[in-house]
Specification:
The complex is a heterodimer of chains A (339) and B (384). With 339 residues, chain A is of the alpha/beta class. Chain A has 2 domains: 7-126 and 229-329, D-Maltodextrin-Binding Protein, domain 2 (3-Layer(aba) Sandwich), CATH 3.40.190.10; 130-225, D-Maltodextrin-Binding Protein, domain 2 (3-Layer(aba) Sandwich), CATH 3.40.190. Chain A is built from 13 helices and 14 strands. With 384 residues, chain B is an alpha+beta fold. Classes of the chains: A alpha/beta (339), B alpha+beta (384).
């Protein structure tokens, strides 16, 4: 009988210990430092934002945000590992802790910011949703799309805006919903759909890199939504949230101050107090974030400022700065002061 | 009973209780830990989202009306209906194709049996996902655009938007025809029961099959003619971007149905072949000796014995086909998994969404399995 009691006690003790284990809460910064790299969720392949080049190195504006965070944390922009994610996988990957940052042309909306348990750490590209059609259909406006078959990726704001737009304009459409970017664009270019819809940046990038002949396709003039795209982190770790947010802001502030990867070394020892703070020669901005004093210097030196990243990744594909110009030049890129 | 571990029965009971407690404790831990973490990260939970407006459109809404203004619950119901549609049709077609191929492999005709062997060996050894992409590519890349659609039969159009077919415009007379059909089925069944009893009693045979066929086909035809043969066809016509009017089989549905049918049929063919081979030669010879003709010998002697071998593995093929229909996601057919995935992404409630998918497949699978077990029991060897 004694044995029975012992076994029962052990079993219940085990159950109690398991049940009482707290939700483990190591800070993301500590976890990232101890593993030695930033795990970054990116698009499976959207030219200009995140796509591996011929050498297998990830390139793009969204990728540069990841590299900036790595430069801030480690002083080495190469300490990033990438997880290519579809639109449907991205939030679960972030929520479950599989990735540290989601930088995958993701639209900031209220419901994502709240009920998904996420925080948007700023905007790295101001976008809007558009429509692309083959030229031979002779369509001039989105208002003429009644009855069209439309290719769209599931689990996106695009899918919802599309339905809203057609409801608002009392038109009908047939969606063809395919998860993988490659498959959905194939379906469009093979003629399965009349229209492909996504953010205008995605349309430009897809037309430029995947169309059999880019001149055969037009992007309609209507932009039907606001799509502020930005990096996302998990809710509940404010320090990590701050680091990602200010890594992006540092890129934008650097452009405003005229600091570039090729000239920042000449600004060391500058008399300008703003630049002194930026390069870590005065003040303790780095310490406030829990980072090295040279964190923002490293970002600019290794990744470049926002404008450099834009020119390197998006300009060759035919993107205009437009809304994404600095606020001083009529755009929306505006970062809070670094002081 | 003495409460001691030396008592084998008591010991067994204790170990079972301990095991049960451990399983329950693990379950409680998983649930409470998940709830705590969701709470801590401020992630919404619960099934309240099912009543919210879905806001996204669905491409195929044949059986259930749906618009983006409807709820997530309705969107999921549409997905479920689409899963049922492709799975049921797939099961019926795969059984027919599989049986034919299986019998073809047993054929004494060299060419027929080799072709059937080739079919089985190629199709069951290529992954289903690859086959689905293959069929989808064939349909969407090779067929022309709607404006240049193929028109093999009047009113039938083949294009990369799918197959547009004419439909019958519904009239009240059609309900009478359907009613007559059901009455015909009922009567045919009664006739066959009566004929079997009479044959058992008196030995006199009755052409129950032909009488039944006459009833099942003749009564609806009679009703149709009496109602004045109302058959107004709605023909698909090119309007704007696409065909409107009539019915359309989308490329996604066609590719998925073709893939599931052809792939599963290869397995069913082997099951059918094995079932027939399992019936001993002596049974054929005995039937022959009794003077039964070939067809009758097959129907009365061989098939009932073969079915006993066929049904259990056939059940698992039906389950496989139903579960494989979730590969629909890859080619954009809006089945339950595709819709639930979208819902998960729009609401962020992954755990609830996955739970719904699991519950759906579990229910479907257990239902198929219960039905097939019942059928298996019916045809099992009755020992007297």
């Amino acid at each position: 009988m004694r044995t029975v009691v012992t076994v029962a006690t052990l079993a219940s003790a085990l159950a109690l210990t398991l049940g009482a284990l707290p939700a483990h809460a190591q800070s993301t910064l500590d976890a990232v430092k101890s593993k030695g790299f930033v795990q970054c969720g990116v698009n499976t392949g959207l030219a200009g934002f995140s796509q591996p080049d011929s050498k297998g190195e990830w390139k793009g504006l969204d990728v540069d945000v990841c590299r900036a965070v790595a430069a801030a944390v480690f002083g080495d922009a190469t300490k990033v590992r990438y997880t290519p994610l579809t639109a449907q996988q991205r939030f679960t990957a972030l929520q479950s802790g599989e990735i540290d940052i989601l930088s995958r042309n993701t639209t900031w909306t209220l419901s994502r910011d709240t009920s998904l348990g996420l925080n948007f750490a700023g905007v790295d590209y101001y976008d809007g949703q558009g429509f692309m059609v083959p030229k031979k259909l002779n369509v001039k406006s989105a208002k003429q799309l009644n009855g069209a078959t439309i290719c769209v990726q599931p689990g996106t704001t695009t899918e919802l805006n599309l339905a809203d737009y057609f409801r608002a304009n009392n038109m009908k459409f047939k969606p063809v919903v395919i998860e993988k970017l490659e498959e959905v664009t194939n379906a469009f270019f093979s003629g399965r759909c009349d229209v492909y819809t996504t953010d205008v940046s995605g349309l430009v990038s897809t037309r430029g890199t995947r169309a059999p002949n880019p001149a055969d396709y037009v992007i309609l003039p209507e932009v039907i939504s606001k799509e502020p795209l930005g990096p996302v982190v998990r809710h509940g770790d404010d320090q990590w949230f701050d680091i990602v947010k200010w890594s992006l802001f540092a890129m934008i502030d650097a452009e405003e101050m005229g600091l570039r990867s090729d000239n920042i070394d000449q600004h060391m020892g500058s008399k300008n107090p703003g630049i002194q703070r930026f390069v870590g020669e005065s003040g303790d901005l780095g310490k406030m974030l829990g980072l090295d004093p040279k964190w923002s210097y490293n970002i600019v030196k290794q990744v470049g400022n926002y404008g450099e990243s834009f020119d390197r990744n998006l300009k060759p594909l035919g993107f205009e700065r437009g809304l994404n110009a600095l606020w001083t030049k009529g755009g929306l890129m505006y970062a809070p002061p670094m002081r | 009973m003495q409460a001691s571990l030396r008592d084998a029965r008591f010991r067994a009971l204790v170990f079972q209780l301990v095991a049960l407690a451990a399983v329950i404790a693990a379950g409680v831990y998983l649930v409470s830990n998940t709830a705590t973490n969701l709470e801590a990260r401020n992630i919404a939970s619960g099934f309240g989202f099912l009543q919210r407006e879905a806001g996204f459109a669905i491409g195929e809404t044949t059986l259930i009306q749906y618009s983006p203004a409807d709820t997530y619950l309705r969107a999921l119901a549409v997905g479920l209906a689409n899963t049922f549609r492709v799975a049921l049709l797939g099961i019926v077609l795969a059984t027919i194709v599989g049986t034919l191929v299986g019998l073809a492999r047993l054929s004494t005709n060299w060419l027929v049996s080799r072709l059937a062997t080739l079919y089985v060996e190629v199709l069951r050894n290529v992954p289903l996902l690859v086959q689905l992409f293959f069929w989808y590519a064939i349909i969407s890349e090779n067929l022309p655009s709607p404006r240049a659609a193929l028109n093999p039969l009047p009113g039938v159009f083949l294009s990369n938007r799918g197959i547009a077919l004419p439909t019958l415009v519904y009239e009240i007379a059609h309900a009478w025809v359907l009613g007559a059909f059901l009455v015909g089925v009922l009567l045919a069944w009664r006739v066959s029961v009566w004929a079997r009893r009479r044959q058992a009693r008196t030995g006199a045979q009755f052409h129950a099959f032909w009488t039944g066929l006459g009833l099942v086909l003749g009564l609806p035809l009679l009703a149709f003619l009496l109602a004045g043969a109302p058959a107004q066809l709605e023909l698909p016509a090119l309007a704007g971007f696409n065909f409107s009017g009539g019915a359309t089989l989308t490329p996604e549905f066609a590719a998925l149905l073709a893939g599931l049918t052809i792939y599963t049929a290869a397995f069913i063919a082997e099951i059918v072949r094995a079932g027939v081979l399992a019936v001993q030669r002596g049974q054929f010879e005995a039937a022959d000796a009794l003077g039964l003709r070939r067809g009758l010998a097959m129907r009365l002697v061989v098939l009932p014995q073969a079915l006993r071998v066929i049904v259990p593995p056939l059940t698992s093929q039906y389950l496989n086909l139903t579960k494989n229909s979730s590969l629909a996601v890859a080619i954009g057919y809006p089945d339950i998994v595709s819709i639930a995935n979208t819902a998960i992404n729009q609401t962020g409630q992954a755990i609830e969404g996955i739970a719904i998918i699991m519950a759906v497949y579990l229910t479907i699978s257990l239902s198929i399995s219960a039905f097939m077990n019942w059928y298996n029991k019916r045809i099992a060897l009755v020992e007297r």
